[in-house]
């Protein structure tokens, strides 16, 4: 039997989403996983996890790194000598960092990434970062953030990383004019597409955060307007706004509709003529809509159930419902930030069921009772659910894959149609 879960009183309107909160056992990756896309984006940075061998195995497994590759991440292992107090953790960490930087002179920013083990033994990585920055200044800047999974979900690793960078952003001098800051890690190809569309409209003062090189941090100030490309950056937004930046409210750039609304928010802030906006966006929007129509054949009318994992769930649900005709059963999300999600929530079907947080056993019961056509969940749940006859989509793949923008809309849709087509072939 499912436990009775109270409906939140702030979800009252008959057309509003119905939001329930859950607390209990969770099934998510930790924030260390964010290193996998961050190290690809920030090309002169290195991410050093201060953790256990389990942390190292997690990162290697998630990244799929070949043994002869030399990635820009690694793990400083906390072993039995550290835990028993037989070695000074700070001395050991300093030795690892000195050895790393002497071997990799290309590194310009080193992130010390905290983990569950380093936090349990109270290792102060903020002081370690300050000490190591002084030792390696000005060649290398050393920062720290927490990737621990004790109280967070895996995409919050990026939020913590960008939050650590915000204090280092140069101040935009007054009178320089408005600048647009796109916030959230995007694949380089997506960034190039977005920059080109904005430039064609006449918006050329554009920066992306994080940048491709950590030494090219964008300026920020009261004339900065920013658009979120990712929905899981709550702490970063607060830090940006403390520096004077103002957010442009918009849905996230997923699908043809979401991308158009996202670009329109920038166009409106810059006073771009509607005819110019339409002329710039018409062709890519129509290509995306035509490509989505081909995927809609496989997805329309199919019921989908989201377990909470990445905080992408609500924008994805909006996209799948409105552009592909899928039926939303339950939308689980680790956290519901109503301010950042306001435009997305307004586009969900009336009465959509959202679950914030997780009690995994109760949610599994509801999932089995609903018998959805497709379940979006973490890797830990996918195989058991597949063995029980349900079709699943790995949530983590939706973060690793370029999915934003017009040109990626069909690729995003195919991530959902592919498991259903595979199930049909296996059943034939």
Question: Which tags fit this structure?
Answer:
single chain, 428 residues, alpha/beta, 6-stranded parallel beta sheet, 4-stranded parallel beta sheet, 17 helices, 14 strands, 45% helix, globular, disordered N terminus
How would you describe this structure to a colleague?
- The protein has 428 residues and is α/β, with parallel strands linked by helices.
- The chain has 17 helices and 14 strands.
- α7 runs parallel beside α9, α11 (274-299) runs parallel beside α17 and α12 packs parallel to α13.
- The longest helix is centred in the last third of the chain and has 26 residues, at 274-299.
- Residues 1-14 have low confidence and may be disordered.
Strands, helices and their partners?
Layout (H helix, E strand, L loop, with lengths): L17 E5 L12 H7 L3 E7 L1 H11 L9 E5 L2 H4 L5 H15 L5 E6 L1 H5 L4 H12 L4 E6 L9 H10 L13 E5 L4 H14 L4 E4 L14 E5 L5 H9 L3 E2 L7 H15 L4 H26 L3 E4 L6 H12 L2 E7 L4 H10 L5 E5 L2 H11 L3 E4 L1 H9 L4 E3 L2 H4 L8 H19 L1
Parallel strand pairs: 1-12, 2-3, 2-4, 4-5, 6-7, 6-8, 8-9, 10-11, 10-13, 11-12, 13-14
Helix pairs in contact: 7-9, 10-11, 11-17, 12-13
């Amino acid at each position: 039997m499912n436990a009775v879960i109270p409906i939140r009183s702030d979800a009252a309107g008959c057309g509003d989403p119905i939001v329930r909160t859950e607390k209990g056992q969770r099934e998510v990756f930790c924030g260390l996983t964010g290193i996998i896309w961050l190290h690809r984006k920030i090309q002169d940075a290195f991410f050093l996890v201060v953790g256990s061998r389990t942390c190292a195995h997690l990162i290697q497994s998630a990244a799929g790194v070949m043994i002869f590759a030399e990635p820009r991440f690694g793990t400083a292992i906390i072993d039995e000598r550290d835990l028993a107090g037989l070695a000074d953790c700070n001395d050991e960490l300093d030795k690892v960092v000195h050895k790393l930087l002497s071997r990799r002179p290309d590194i310009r920013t080193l992130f010390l990434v905290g983990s569950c083990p380093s936090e349990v033994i109270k290792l102060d990585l903020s002081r370690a970062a300050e000490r190591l920055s002084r030792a390696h200044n000005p060649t290398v800047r050393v920062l720290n953030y927490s990737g621990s999974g004790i109280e967070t979900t895996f995409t919050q690793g990026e939020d913590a990383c960008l939050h650590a960078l915000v204090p280092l952003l140069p101040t935009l001098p007054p009178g320089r004019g408005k600048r647009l800051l796109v916030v959230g890690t995007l694949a380089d190809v997506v960034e190039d597409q977005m920059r080109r569309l904005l430039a064609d409209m006449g918006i050329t003062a554009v920066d992306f955060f994080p940048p491709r090189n950590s030494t090219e941090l964008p300026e920020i100030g009261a004339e900065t307007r920013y658009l979120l490309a990712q929905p899981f950056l709550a702490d970063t937004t607060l830090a940006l706004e403390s520096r004077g930046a103002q957010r442009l409210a918009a849905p996230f750039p997923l699908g043809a509709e979401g991308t158009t609304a996202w670009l329109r928010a920038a166009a409106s802030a810059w006073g771009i003529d509607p005819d110019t906006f339409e002329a710039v966006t018409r062709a890519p929007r129509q290509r995306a809509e035509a490509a989505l129509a081909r995927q809609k054949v496989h997805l329309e009318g199919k019921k989908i159930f989201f377990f909470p994992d990445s905080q992408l769930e609500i924008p994805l649900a909006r996209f799948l419902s409105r552009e592909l005709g899928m039926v939303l059963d339950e939308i689980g999300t680790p956290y519901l930030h109503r301010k950042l999600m306001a435009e997305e929530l307004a586009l969900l079907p009336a009465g959509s069921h959202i679950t914030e947080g997780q009690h995994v056993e109760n949610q599994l019961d509801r999932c089995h009772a609903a018998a959805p056509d497709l379940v979006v969940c973490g890797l830990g749940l996918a195989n058991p659910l597949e063995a029980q006859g349900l079709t699943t989509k790995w949530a983590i793949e939706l973060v690793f894959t370029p999915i934003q923008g017009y040109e990626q809309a069909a690729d995003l849709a195919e991530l959902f149609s592919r498991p259903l087509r595979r199930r049909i072939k296996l059943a034939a």
